[in-house]
Specification:
Layout lengths: L1 E2 L2 E2 H5 L1 H34 L1 H7 L7 H34 L7 H32 L4 H24 L6 E3 L3 H13 L7 E4 L10 E4 L6 E5 H6 L2 H16 L2 H23 L3 H6 L12 H38 L2 H15 L7 H7 L5 H13 L5
Parallel strand pairs: 4-6
Antiparallel strand pairs: 1-2, 3-4, 5-6
Helix pairs in contact: 2-3, 2-4, 2-12, 4-5, 5-6, 6-10, 7-9, 9-12, 9-13, 12-15, 13-15
């Protein structure tokens, strides 16, 4: 298949394209099954006896404890039902394909930490929602929107300090010459960087990656140690330039703003739907947002809207990645490094080089390697770069 002017087979070879498809195709199927299962469980918890069975043991608890406990029980149920899929996709299959370097205990610890973190965040959000409705029966959507927005901002700011260290250890780049070169490149872009850190990803995977996280004082660039092992200096400079492109375009703050906008839309939809007495009765929450029983419906609505919005979010992310790619090539002027690093990452991570179009539109946060190389070749041939 020709993708945006570059034939995936011509660029990577038929065998590599087929191998990548063989790796990803079952993952797409599992993802769809898990989504359907999660939506089914949430629907049963919201509108069937399952919700009552989960909530009844919490009778007599204070309203906030019932809310947090009900949220935790629903999260535990969906996590337990999805655990066989998670073990197969995240551990057994990654080992069979030669990617995972993680022990069974390490995988279990990661899953436990992820579950605990998810319960803490979702529980805080649900308690905040119910508290808003109980305290401000008429203006709770405004209060919930403000509290939720504050939670999003706090998570974006604090994630590098509180969340990421739960899963990886971070150290500064040990190679002083490399650190100097990266710093000089950032200065040339007029985007000085405070922290370039290396994550010990190799204790978990052989895949390579880099990312930026945090806001303001917590903003930093993180390189996987697996990337440092295989990338050349020009390639690492290209990776840094790409991440600087995200910073120049303020993609992280924009992402936070879009998340806040999504939250406002969600709260508005929730407020409108809970205005229907018939729906409140069907959900077993006649008190609406002030009733802990509403948690199941809130989680169901959030999952449904997130699924519907996924293609829009993926399209926006791909646009931002293209902007960062363009900036990286304009800053470095190194088409060879651009092509080599994206070829190397595609092979190291076994990226799907020719994904099914519906999957691409709904799930892909990045353009395919073929699209990225094609765009880079066009830019390199343009008068702007030449």
């Amino acid at each position: 298949m020709s993708v945006d002017g570059v034939d995936a087979v011509a660029l990577f070879g038929r065998e590599q394209v087929a191998r990548a498809r063989g790796y990803h195709a079952p993952l797409y199927t599992v993802a769809l099954i898990r989504l359907a299962l999660d939506l089914l469980v949430l629907a049963l918890a919201a509108f069937a006896p399952l919700g009552r069975w989960l909530l009844d043991p919490l009778a007599g608890w204070p309203w906030w404890a019932r809310t947090a406990g009900f949220t935790a029980l629903i999260d535990a149920l969906t996590t337990a039902l999805g655990l066989p899929f998670a073990i197969w996709t995240g551990f057994l299959r990654e080992r069979s394909w030669g990617f995972s370097t993680q022990s069974r205990s390490g995988f279990a610890a990661d899953r436990a930490k992820s579950f605990a973190l998810g319960v803490a965040v979702s529980g805080a959000a649900m308690v905040g929602l119910v508290a808003s409705a109980r305290s401000l029966p008429r203006s709770w959507p405004l209060a919930a929107g403000l509290v939720g927005s504050a939670l999003i901002l706090a998570l974006a700011f604090l994630a590098p300090l509180l969340v990421e260290p739960l899963f990886n250890r971070f150290v500064p780049v040990a190679d002083a010459e490399l650190a100097s070169e990266l710093g000089a490149l950032a200065m040339r872009a007029r985007l000085p960087i405070k922290d370039v850190l290396v994550a010990d990803a190799s204790r978990r995977t052989r895949k390579a990656n880099a990312y930026v996280s945090g806001l303001g004082a917590t903003r930093r660039l993180v390189l996987y140690d697996t990337l440092l092992e295989r990338a050349t200096r020009p390639e690492l400079g290209l990776v840094l330039a790409h991440e600087l492109g995200h910073r120049r375009a303020r993609h992280l703050p924009k992402g936070v703003l879009f998340a806040v906008a999504g939250l406002v839309a969600f709260v508005t939809a929730l407020w409108a739907l809970l205005g229907w007495q018939a729906l409140r009765d069907a959900a077993g929450a006649p008190g609406g947002a002030a009733d802990p029983r509403v948690v199941a419906f809130v989680l169901l609505l959030a999952a449904a809207l997130q699924t519907l919005a996924a293609p829009l979010g993926a399209a926006l992310s791909r646009r931002w990645e293209r902007e960062a790619d363009r900036f990286s090539l304009e800053l470095t002027g190194d088409l060879d490094a651009f092509e080599s690093v994206h070829r190397s990452l595609a092979l190291a991570n076994l990226a799907d080089l020719d994904p099914p179009r519906p999957i691409y539109l709904a799930l892909f946060s990045h353009p395919t390697p073929c699209e990225r190389i094609a765009a880079a070749r066009r830019l390199a041939a343009s008068p702007r770069l030449g």
